[in-house]
Amino acid sequence: MKRSFKRSLFVLLALGLSLVGFALSAQDPKPFIGDWKGAVFIAGTEIGLVAHFTLDENKNIAGTIDSPSQNAYGLKLANIKIEGKKITFRIDAPGAPGDPTFSGELDPAGMNIKGDFSQGESTGTFSFEKQK
Which domains does the chain have, with CATH numbers? Predict the structure, then answer.
Protein backbone atom coordinates (compact mmCIF):
# COMPACT_ATOMS: atom_id res chain seq x y z
CA MET A 1 0.00 0.00 0.00
CA LYS A 2 2.85 2.37 0.81
CA ARG A 3 4.38 1.81 -2.64
CA SER A 4 1.03 2.49 -4.38
CA PHE A 5 0.65 5.78 -2.46
CA LYS A 6 4.16 6.90 -3.48
CA ARG A 7 3.48 6.01 -7.11
CA SER A 8 0.18 7.96 -7.06
CA LEU A 9 1.89 10.93 -5.44
CA PHE A 10 4.65 10.86 -8.07
CA VAL A 11 2.10 10.71 -10.92
CA LEU A 12 0.16 13.65 -9.46
CA LEU A 13 3.34 15.67 -8.97
CA ALA A 14 4.50 14.99 -12.55
CA LEU A 15 1.07 15.91 -13.92
CA GLY A 16 1.03 19.12 -11.87
CA LEU A 17 4.48 20.16 -13.09
CA SER A 18 3.56 19.51 -16.71
CA LEU A 19 0.42 21.63 -16.35
CA VAL A 20 2.46 24.47 -14.84
CA GLY A 21 4.90 24.24 -17.76
CA PHE A 22 2.01 24.34 -20.25
CA ALA A 23 0.48 27.37 -18.52
CA LEU A 24 3.79 29.23 -18.58
CA SER A 25 4.43 28.47 -22.25
CA ALA A 26 0.88 29.53 -23.15
CA GLN A 27 1.65 32.98 -21.70
CA ASP A 28 4.89 33.61 -23.64
CA PRO A 29 5.02 37.35 -24.43
CA LYS A 30 8.12 37.19 -26.68
CA PRO A 31 6.26 37.00 -30.04
CA PHE A 32 4.45 40.24 -29.15
CA ILE A 33 7.49 42.25 -28.01
CA GLY A 34 8.33 45.14 -30.33
CA ASP A 35 6.66 47.92 -32.29
CA TRP A 36 3.45 47.36 -34.24
CA LYS A 37 1.98 49.78 -36.77
CA GLY A 38 -1.62 49.60 -37.89
CA ALA A 39 -5.09 50.99 -37.47
CA VAL A 40 -8.48 50.67 -35.87
CA PHE A 41 -11.45 50.54 -38.24
CA ILE A 42 -14.61 51.78 -36.53
CA ALA A 43 -17.82 53.41 -37.79
CA GLY A 44 -16.36 53.85 -41.29
CA THR A 45 -13.26 55.58 -39.94
CA GLU A 46 -9.64 54.43 -39.94
CA ILE A 47 -7.47 55.65 -37.08
CA GLY A 48 -3.74 54.99 -37.39
CA LEU A 49 -2.02 53.56 -34.31
CA VAL A 50 1.41 52.40 -33.24
CA ALA A 51 1.61 49.93 -30.33
CA HIS A 52 4.81 49.29 -28.38
CA PHE A 53 5.15 46.11 -26.29
CA THR A 54 8.10 45.57 -23.93
CA LEU A 55 9.00 43.50 -20.88
CA ASP A 56 9.04 45.31 -17.54
CA GLU A 57 11.62 44.69 -14.80
CA ASN A 58 9.62 41.62 -13.65
CA LYS A 59 9.58 40.15 -17.18
CA ASN A 60 5.85 40.89 -17.56
CA ILE A 61 4.55 42.35 -20.78
CA ALA A 62 3.86 46.09 -20.71
CA GLY A 63 2.97 48.56 -23.41
CA THR A 64 1.98 51.93 -24.73
CA ILE A 65 0.12 53.07 -27.83
CA ASP A 66 0.34 56.17 -30.00
CA SER A 67 -2.38 57.78 -32.11
CA PRO A 68 -0.47 60.28 -34.28
CA SER A 69 -3.60 61.65 -35.98
CA GLN A 70 -5.01 62.52 -32.55
CA ASN A 71 -1.66 63.87 -31.32
CA ALA A 72 -1.73 61.27 -28.51
CA TYR A 73 1.54 59.51 -27.64
CA GLY A 74 2.63 57.08 -24.95
CA LEU A 75 -0.87 56.11 -23.79
CA LYS A 76 -0.48 53.32 -21.24
CA LEU A 77 -1.88 49.87 -22.00
CA ALA A 78 -3.44 47.86 -19.17
CA ASN A 79 -4.82 44.39 -18.56
CA ILE A 80 -2.50 42.90 -21.18
CA LYS A 81 -3.26 39.18 -21.32
CA ILE A 82 -1.68 36.58 -23.56
CA GLU A 83 -3.05 33.10 -24.17
CA GLY A 84 -1.00 31.32 -26.79
CA LYS A 85 -1.29 33.45 -29.93
CA LYS A 86 -4.15 35.58 -28.54
CA ILE A 87 -3.70 38.96 -26.89
CA THR A 88 -6.11 41.34 -25.19
CA PHE A 89 -5.42 44.79 -23.79
CA ARG A 90 -7.06 48.14 -23.19
CA ILE A 91 -5.98 51.75 -23.29
CA ASP A 92 -5.65 53.07 -19.75
CA ALA A 93 -5.38 56.81 -20.26
CA PRO A 94 -7.09 59.68 -18.46
CA GLY A 95 -9.84 61.03 -20.65
CA ALA A 96 -10.04 57.99 -22.93
CA PRO A 97 -13.80 57.43 -23.07
CA GLY A 98 -15.56 54.09 -23.28
CA ASP A 99 -12.78 51.71 -22.14
CA PRO A 100 -11.04 51.14 -25.54
CA THR A 101 -10.32 47.39 -25.70
CA PHE A 102 -8.45 45.24 -28.22
CA SER A 103 -8.76 41.47 -28.60
CA GLY A 104 -6.72 39.88 -31.37
CA GLU A 105 -4.64 36.99 -32.59
CA LEU A 106 -1.11 36.72 -33.93
CA ASP A 107 -0.84 35.14 -37.38
CA PRO A 108 1.29 31.98 -37.84
CA ALA A 109 4.23 34.00 -39.23
CA GLY A 110 4.23 36.22 -36.12
CA MET A 111 4.07 39.41 -38.17
CA ASN A 112 0.41 40.50 -37.93
CA ILE A 113 -2.17 40.86 -35.18
CA LYS A 114 -5.81 41.19 -36.22
CA GLY A 115 -8.92 41.27 -34.13
CA ASP A 116 -11.83 43.12 -32.60
CA PHE A 117 -11.90 46.58 -31.09
CA SER A 118 -14.57 48.05 -28.83
CA GLN A 119 -15.03 51.44 -27.24
CA GLY A 120 -18.22 52.12 -25.33
CA GLU A 121 -21.13 51.01 -27.53
CA SER A 122 -19.03 51.10 -30.71
CA THR A 123 -17.30 48.07 -32.17
CA GLY A 124 -14.89 47.59 -35.02
CA THR A 125 -11.71 45.79 -35.98
CA PHE A 126 -7.98 46.43 -35.81
CA SER A 127 -4.90 45.26 -37.61
CA PHE A 128 -1.22 45.69 -36.66
CA GLU A 129 1.94 44.76 -38.56
CA LYS A 130 5.20 44.14 -36.70
CA GLN A 131 7.89 46.68 -37.51
CA LYS A 132 11.48 45.59 -38.14
Answer: 30-130 (2.40.128.120)
